[in-house]
Amino acid sequence: MDGAIGPVPAGLYAAPRCCHTWGYDAQFRISPSPAEFEALAHAAFARIPEPFSLHLEGITVHIEDFADEDTLRDMGIADAWELTGLYHGRPMDEDSVWLSGELPPRITLYRQPLLAEWCETDVALEDLVAHVVVHEVGHHFGLTDEQMHALEGQAN
Length: 156
Prior knowledge:
The chain has five helices and three strands. The protein has helices spanning about 35-45, 70-75, 110-120, 125-140, 145-155, and strands at about 60-65, 85-90, 105-110.
């Protein structure tokens, strides 16, 4: 579903819980289209430095409005607004040349929850998208959420 907008999960509104007029475009104060959002994600992905970038070949970035019900259930998340991104794939530390038949790794960003977070915080959209992309890339390298939070805490 690269760039495709799927149905809104049952019980959710189609728009984020904030005013859509907050500005991605400083002149016109509009949110980015799905294609522009995907470009933000690819730009964040492209800024990942070596040596990490050398190990990202084959990972694709996808944009969806919300996680589907199966994904939310598998993640143990009741509210689709709470999931902004997800890494799908086998972490590098579990990969093997002997494994075959698996889909290539991918990162999915969930556009509506990210737009809502952007509207509810003072964080620039580009920075928010970059943060989620880097977080999901961390899962590609085998880091857990707890390990990434600890690293972020050490960096601050």
